[in-house]
Amino acid sequence: MINIESLVSLMQADKNLIPWAEILPEQMKKIFLKNPHGDLPRWNKTIDTMIRQTPSSTDFNSDAVRIGNADDITQAQRDELISQLKEFMPWRKGPFELFGIHIDTEWRSDWKWNRIKDHIKSLAGKTVLDVGCSNGYHAWRMYGAGAKMVIGIDPTMIFVMQHQVMKKYTGDRPVYVLPLGIDDVPQKLKAFDTVFSMGVLYHRRDPLEHLKTLHDALKKGGELILETLVIEGGNEEVLMPKDRYAMMRNVHNIPSCDMLEQWLVQEKFKNIRFIDITATTIEEQHTTEWMEFQSLQDFLDPKDNTKTIEGYPAPVRAIVVAEK
Ligand SMILES: C[S@@+](CC[C@H](N)C(=O)[O-])C[C@H]1O[C@@H](n2cnc3c(N)ncnc32)[C@H](O)[C@@H]1O
């Protein structure tokens, strides 16, 4: 089980989050006790045996989320920690720097954050939901930008455990990654000042329903930051890959920007602004020592990098900001 005591207390102090506080312990029991992931005992054991050390400092505003310094631990402790951290591979989102150990992740997630941070309402004092937060890299950056509380949800257990590794050293800060999907968030919470959904929309079979759920989670006047794959095209164009897209099996829809805007209007979002459109490069997404599987380079047509291996347009991502 992950420790949710402080989260439940914070939720109970916020009237809009009370409905979630009431069901969260049962949600966690169901995931951790009724049908637990087979690797959980091993992951928990590794976290328990990792060195106990208070970091001399932390920095959640630097490109690599930094927890502790190299001088906080000995060389032998560092070697052991590296091999323990490698038990949580693949490290996809980051980078992190833990006691001077640089976790060079598949994605330069800091590049995405840098595209966003100056275009959104201040996060200072805000209650934030990050849907599909992976290991919480961006959640730490949101906290670094002043958020009062960040609740991240991601159903992939290894990413939740990567966050637990960092939590071992960060103390009880109001940043949480819960092993839940968007459908586990109680309906119509109207609890969050800011909701992020980055890299999730194209995985949803019903994109409009996803946008509606995000709208329902926001307070009136709250802000949505949505990042998703897009194609070039007019206001009725959506790519629905037949089978795989860039080797991913679960990509269900890639709209044009105009289509995406229409979807947002349809789900009652206002003040819709595209703040960035960028083609993903092999510098931003690549194989590393911490993520040894194939990556973007292997998913593109070797003769024409503007196409995926299946012949679709290569990945281009848009970031849209909108208000409720
Ligand atoms: C492409 S990654 C994006 C991670 C991060 N938001 C980012 O932008 O770097 C998509 C994440 O969404 C998660 N995910 C998949 N289905 C989900 C769902 N139903 N609800 C919430 N997250 C989901 C996956 O486990 C994965 O970590």
Explain what the structure shows:
The protein has a single domain (5-323), classed as Rossmann fold (3-Layer(aba) Sandwich), CATH 3.40.50. Helix content is 31%, strand content 24%. It is built from 10 helices and 17 strands. It has helices spanning 5-12, 18-34, 40-49, 75-86, 109-116, 137-144, 157-170, 207-217, 257-266, 296-299, and strands spanning 58-59, 65-67, 93-94, 96-98, 101-103, 107-108, 127-131, 149-153, 175-178, 192-198, 218-229, 238-239, 254-255, 270-279, 300-301, 304-308, 316-323. The strands form 5 sheets. The chain has a 7-stranded mixed beta sheet with strand order 9-8-7-10-11-17-14, with helices on both faces. Strands 1-2-4-5 form a 4-stranded mixed beta sheet, with helices on one face. Strands 3-6 form a two-stranded parallel ribbon. Strand 10, helix 8 (207-217) and strand 11 form a beta-alpha-beta unit. It is globular, with a radius of gyration of 20 Å. The mean pLDDT is 97.
Give the tally of structural domains. 1
CATH superfamily: Vaccinia Virus protein VP39
* Count of β-strands: 17
**Major sheet details:** 7 strands, mixed
